[in-house]
Amino acid sequence: SVTKRAALLVLEFDDGSEFGALAAMEWKDQYLTTDQLEQVIVVGAGGNLRPDANFRTRQTFRNINFSTFFTTGLKIQENHELTYNWMLLRSTTDRAALQRGTDPDITGGERLTRTLEWIEREMKANQLIGKHSFPKAGGLVLDWQYTDANASAWEPDRREYRYEPDRFTPEEDDFIFPLDRGALIRSWGDLDDSSESWNVDFTLPLELSGSTDLAIKTGFNEVNKSRLSVLRKYSFEARGPAGTNIDLRRNLSLGDVIFDETILPEGWEIFENTGRNDNYTAGAKTEAWHLGLDLN
């Protein structure tokens, strides 16, 4: 489903001044299901082609997108203009994926892998712009701009877990949750980017002889950026009978395999797999002056 709205306001005054404002929004709620087949073919003995891996993946997405902006402007007679812009973009994705297939590392049947993730992204921006002309100062023109923007991504509790063929049964379509530490990976991620910038530009026109015009331009610009990235990863490993219980591990719902009563020293033990470079901060600052001549 899609919903759109917009509103416009324009005012004109007797002294030549003008005021305007525009606001708009859009909301989308969409579902998407994809089916993907991945086959790997290799050259075997005697130059014959043989299948090496075969996976089928079905993914279901729900995307909720919301965007809105507001802009307003004021023109004061002929010499001064002010503009304010505000924008908000939000995108939320809910993804569930199921992958099933075989590869050379699997014996006795197929591997089953499930992925569940939820990602929220947001971007906000505020911008103020001004332009001013000073006829009594030789036609000097001042242009300035200030922008403050922030972008974030939040991914709470991403889960990816797999089931291997159950070699304790004669059937090839039976699955069991494996005991190794990489069978379940849960992660939490949070990313925040900020940017602040401003610039000031001056233009001074000069009239030369004939039809030649010269403009002197100068200005200053500064940009400050920062980032904070946080990522935590966890896995589980069976340490005792409560974790190695075959009947529990045959449940295809992970919540029936690892739960409060089985997370204990004699069952499933949690380990942190966060890497050394998974969490970091960064920043950058740029300053620039410019000076130029515009000859027409």
How does this structure look, described?
The protein has 296 residues and is mostly beta strands. The protein is built from two helices and eleven strands; from the N terminus they run E-E-E-E-E-E-E-E-E-H-H-E-E. Strands 1, 2, 3, 4, 5, 6, 7, 8, 9, 10 and 11 form an eleven-stranded antiparallel beta sheet that branches. The longest helix is centred in the C-terminal third of the chain and has 4 residues, at 241-244. The two termini are 53 Å apart. The mean pLDDT is 91.
Helical coverage, percent range: under 10%
pLDDT below 50 for ≥5 consecutive residues: which ranges? none
Give the biggest beta sheet: 11 strands, antiparallel
Mean pLDDT: 91
Shape: elongated
Total number of helical segments? 2
Write out key terms for the chains shown.
elongated, mainly beta, 296 residues, eleven-stranded antiparallel beta sheet
Topology:
Elements: E1 2-12, E2 18-43, E3 49-76, E4 80-102, E5 111-134, E6 140-165, E7 175-176, E8 184-207, E9 213-238, H1 241-244, H2 246-249, E10 268-272, E11 280-295
Antiparallel strand pairs: 1-2, 2-3, 3-4, 4-5, 5-6, 6-7, 6-8, 8-9, 9-10, 9-11
Gist of the model:
The chain is mainly β and 296 residues long. The protein is built from two helices and eleven strands. The relative contact order is 0.11.
